[in-house]
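I hope you will forgive my troubling you with a question about protein structure. Could you please explain, in whatever detail you think fit, how the structure tokens follow from the sequence? Thank you for your consideration; the sequence and its tokens are set out here.
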Amino acid sequence: MLGNRPYLGLIGVNVPFNICTVFSAVALPVCVVRGLHAPLSGRSVPSSRSPRRLWAARCAAAALTVLLARGSLLVGCLTAMMLLLWAAAGMPHGPASNGLSAQAAPEGLRGTCPAAFPYSFATADMVTPGLFVVLYGVNRVLPWVVVGCLAPAASVAVRPLERRLTRGEAARRRGGEAAAEVNLTRA
């Protein structure tokens, strides 16, 4: 598996997506309680839509909220942001990325590659708190700006990997369909 650079690239590019997912859970409570001295609510409602654009939108909304809103408006904006953007961006990513991981695994590594893919989730879980602390220490808006740029950057990086990794799967399917047609014509 270590020789399969496209698959290793998929694992690597999945880390920024997962940082986007983990980031709000790590950053938002600190920003609300310590940085903004506002009350914290722990509710979230799952939803689904296109995560790549929504992660960037979520971070932009959080940065604007941190800069502009105060008092009850702040709490309302943060609640809306969490309910509408965070859940909508994060929920579909796990299943979609795991599906791509399984589909992209080479024939001889169908067990090994998908077993290694969760390291991208674990890496994000380990990196995100430190990333937040460093960025928040510089400026309270900087974490949202940096993480908001991760999703679009990772989206650009994953596109050629998706095409390259799923090309083999499409060829295998076409080969299987051609073999099935040959068997049908012979029968």
Summary: Residues 60 and 141 are 10 Å apart (CA to CA).
